[in-house]
Amino acid sequence: MSASVNFDVSLFSQEITLAVWNETEICLIMLPGVGVFGTGQTVRALVPLLQKEGFPVQAVWGRTQEEAESLASELDIPFSTSKTDDVLLHPEVHLVCILTPPPHTRQIAVKALGIGKNVISEQAATLTDACKMVTAARYYPQLMSIMGNSLRFLPAFSYGWAWEELMGGGGLHTVGSCIIDLLSHLTGRRAVRVHGMLRTFVRQGGPAGGIRSVTADDYACFQLLMNGGVVCSVTLNFNLPGTDVHEIMLVGSSGRLIARGTELCGQRASMQVEELLLSDGGEGVGPSVRGLNSMVTQLRLSFQAQEDRRSWARHPVSMAASFEDGLYVQTVVDAIKRSNRTGEWESVEVNQTTEPCQTNTTPTVTFCIYYYKTKPINIIHLLLQ
Q: In angstroms, how far is CA 346 from the centroid of its own chain?
C-alpha cells in the first residue's frame, strides 16, 4: 500500500510510518477470513494469491483428513478438516471458496449462504443443483454469491469489447462451461438453441495410471444460436499433446482483435501487421491463473474498508458471473447433452423462476472468435450478424 503526503517527511517520519502502518493494519483486519473447499491445483494457485492480497485463509476442507492436513501444512492454513460443517461454522470464516468436484458444490453453497457466509463457487453438477443455488442467492441478496470463472477478470477480455459424466465431469462441463459463460460475457448475448456432439475417445484412465472406466466426454463439438443473430461454433478436444496455447480472435469488417495468452493485439483492415494493444505482464502464467490473480485483487477491493467483514462493495466484482449466470450456463450444457442424445437442435429454456436475460443492441460488425487450448484443439467460431 502506498501513501501520499504533502509535508516534510524528515519532521514527521515517525508519525507518517505509524499512520501508514495503522491504515494497512485496518485494511487487513477488515478483510474476511476465508474457508476453502477442495485440495486440487486450483486451490494451490488460489490460496497464495488470497494470502498475498491480505485475506486470512483460516480453514481448508479435503475429502479425507490426511488430504486436508497435508494441504494445510503446505499452504500454512491453521485449520483443516474433512467435515464441511467444521469449515462453515468456523467463527473466523466469512468467505467460502468452493473448488470441489461438482456433486459437492450445491450442498456447500446453499448451506453457506443460509448461515450468512459469502460464497464463490464452481459450476454445479446438474441443472437442479444450479436452480437451488440461484434460489439461495436470491433469498440472501446481501451476501456475495458469484461463480469462480476467473477468465472474466482477464484484462484482455475487458479491453473495450473429472471422470463420470453423471457426476458433472468431462470437458464440456469443466472447460466448456467457462467458454459458454465467457462468450455470453463478451457479446452480451445468450444462446436460444444449440446443437452438439460429445465423444469419449479414451475410455480407460485415472490418477497414477489407473484403469478406471471413463464415461465423461473428452471431445465436444457444438453450435450456439444466440439472440441478436450471433452464431457460435465451438470445438473442444482434450486428446492432443503439446504446450497449452490460448487464443481468441475476433474478425470483423474493420479488422480483427486477438487475445493471445494474456496479451491483446489488433489489426485494422488497412494495416499489414498487427499491433500490441495490451501487454498484461503475466510473468509467464496462463490466462486462467492471471485471471484468478485479477479476481482476487478485485475481491480485496470489494471487502476492504467495510465496517463488517461480511459486508462487500458490488462494483469491484461487478464483472463476476452470478449464480444466475451459472444457471444459464448449466442450462446450455444440459441442452447440448440432450442434442447429443437426440441428434437434433435443442432449445435453451432457462428455468422460469429466473429473470429474463437483458441484452444489448444488435452489433453492426461481423466477428469470428477462435479459442485454442492445448495446441490447437479448442476452437470457437463466433459470428455476429
A: 26
Q: pLDDT tens for residues 118-164?
A: 999 999 989 999 999 999 999 999 999 999 988 888 887 765 543 34
Q: What percent of the chain has pLDDT over 70?
A: 74
Taking the C-alpha atoms of residue 278 and residue 261, their distance in angstroms, rounded to an integer, is 11
Residue spans of alpha helices (H) in the chain: 9-30, 41-52, 65-75, 84-88, 102-114, 127-139, 171, 177-187, 287-303, 323-342
- pLDDT, one tens digit per residue, over 172-207 is 767 788 889 988 888 788 999 999 998 887 765 554
CA atoms within 13 A on the CB side of 45: 17
Which residue(s) pair with 355 in the sheet?
none
Q: Which residues contact 336 (CB under 8 A, 6 or more apart)?
A: 172, 176, 194, 196, 198, 220, 222, 346
Among the ranges given (3-12, 15-24, 183-192, 196-205), the one the predictor scored with the smallest mean pLDDT: 3-12
Under 8 Å between Cβ of 39 and 46: no
Alpha-carbon dihedral sign for residues 227, 230, 233, 236: negative
Catalogue all structural domains in the chain, each as residue range(s) with its CATH number.
9-149 (3.40.50.720), 151-284+323-384 (3.30.360.10)
Question: Rounded mean pLDDT of the chain?
Answer: 78
Exposed/middle/buried for residue 166 (C-beta within 10 Å: 0-12, 13-18, 19+) = exposed
Rounded-to-integer distance, Cα 360 and Cα 30, Å: 37
pTM of the entire predicted model: 0.76
DSSP letters spanning 102-125: HHHHHHHHHHHHHTT-EEEE---S
State the greatest distance between any 2 C-alpha atoms of the chain, in Å, as a whole number. Answer: 78
Angstrom distances, CA of residue 62 to CA of 66, 167, 307: 8, 18, 32
Residue 367 CA to its chain's centroid (Å): 24
